Amino acid sequence: MATTVLTGIQWGDEGKGKIIDVLTEKADVIVRFQGGANAGHTVEIGDERFILHLIPSGILRAGKLCIIGNGVVVDPLGLVAEIQALEERGLELRSRLQISNRAHLVFSYHRAADTWRETSAATPAIGTTRRGIGPAYADKANRIGIRAGDLRHPARLEERFRRQVEAYNQKFEVQGLELLEADREWRELREAAELLAPMVTDTVLTVNRAVRAGKELLFEGAQGLWLDIDYGTYPFVTSSNTSVGGACTGGGLGPKQVDWIYGVVKAYTTRVGEGPFPTELTDDQGEHLRRVGKEYGATTGRPRRCGWFDAVGCRYAVMLNSVDRLAVTKLDVLDDLAEIKICTAYRLDGELLSEMPADTEDILRAEPVYEDMPGWQHPTSQARSWDDLPANAQSYLERIVELLEVKIGLVSTGPHRCETFFR
Ligand code: IMP
After folding, report:
1. CB half-sphere exposure, 362, CA atoms < 13 A
2. Catalytic site residue from 41, 53, 104, 110
3. What is the mean pLDDT of residues 95-123?
4. Which residues contact 15 (CB under 8 A, 6 or more apart)?
């Protein structure tokens, strides 16, 4: 398939990093299209473990061109640190990394504003990653953002940056926050700008030339559908469109160029941060999933909330994203369980709901209606094909497929490349 979009269909952390890594073997160009350093894509190759926040995971395969699209918010200092850390591990990447000149930049004042918003009594906490994502997108929408294209013009960059530091300092003074030292901040930014400027370009042209040349493109989403600013559990969402449409608005792709869509889904559910979670398990079973699934945030280290598979929310995500195939991850985490539950509907005020409500208050009050499935109590990480899976694991996946009305394309039963098979 020439152009594939890969998107998470839960609350993020579905294991996209690993699936992207598997799919990049066949891709020529890999594009990140939304989010920023709030994401943490983990890839394990042999004994090595990589966590990427801004750079597409495709960078780990030699010769692949990687693009940070216009819909991403880029922390220049964080990106420099990520580039240097990969270079220290022997990766050559500057010649194959491009940053969209339209991408907006994230600065320390965005991070400070994010933290203030999370801790102030004036605004309810979202449980953000405090990476400045919301404030950076707010500046973009407010038309006062600074874009990566400005990194190529130091005088213009300095003027815009100092003006913003001053404006934020005025707000911080009122809020009783520590003020930013403009000179020091500028010195750090200038150094980062020098390093990044050669990689800044019009990536819309790169993407479309590659499409026209018949190259294989892979668009990698960050977070997941239930965190989408429009379709997610608002206000407990991130500030970008995590749905497939984001690949067009944030990746420079025309809608008719999307050939194939993978929805990545964990075999159970996790969430980091605040907000509704109808199938959450706050008991020993939730703890079991957290421990076996190593459910701690790749970016913040926070323990993830864990629960059963929610077919109501996933069906909604499959519909909205026109998913062609599911990539089911972390099936092995369920290996020990005697019984597994799938949420097939919500009960709200005595009524059964088969669709995800738009009102977050309703989702908060909704009770899950479960169907019990027998566990398989057999290791699955050695499985290399569908037929290798225990019969009860096949039945569990078949039931998910039936409820979501979509086929399975890929199953992952462990963190390593080899622990994956296509169906
Ligand atoms: P923000 O994106 O940092 O503003 O955080 C908003 C919400 O999205 C919070 O609940 C975060 O925990 C969640 N979030 C952001 N990025 C990720 C991610 O990569 N994985 C899982 N949750 C995320």
Report:
1. 13
2. 41
3. 96
4. 264, 266, 329, 330, 412
Angstrom distances, CA of residue 350 to CA of 346, 365, 367, 369: 10, 11, 10, 12
Q: Model confidence at 421, in pLDDT bands (50, 70, 90)?
A: very high
Name the DSSP class of 11: S
Q: By three-state DSSP, how is residue 26 classified? A: helix
User: Tokens 């079973």 belong to which residue?
Assistant: 285
Mutation to probe ligand 1, out of 10, 115, 223, 242 (largest number of atoms < 8 A from CB): 223
Q: Is the pLDDT of residue 193 over 80?
A: yes
Say if residue 135 is preceded by a cis peptide, omega within 30 of 0: no
Candidates 41, 355, 31, 21; CA nearest to 216 is 31
pLDDT digits (tens, 9 = 90+) for 116-175: 999 998 888 999 999 999 999 999 999 999 999 999 999 999 999 999 999 999 999 999
Please spell the DSSP secondary structure of 73-110, one letter per residue.
Answer: EE-HHHHHHHHHHHHHTT---GGGEEEETTPEE--HHH
Give the model confidence (pLDDT) of 219-232 as tens digits.
Answer: 999 999 999 999 99
Q: Report d(CA 332, CA 378) in Å as an integer.
A: 9
Mutational test site, ligand 1, from 123, 238, 242, max ligand atoms within 8 Å of CB: 238
Bridge partner list, 271? 305
- % of the chain surpassing 70 pLDDT: 100
Token readout for 14 is: 């579905």
Residues with CB under 6 A from ligand 1: 11-13, 38-40, 126-129, 131, 133-134, 222-223, 227, 236, 238-239, 272-273
What lies within 8 Å, CB to CB, of 21 at 6+ separation is: 43, 45, 57, 58, 60, 61, 417
Judged against a pLDDT cut of 80, whether residue 1 lies above it is answered with no
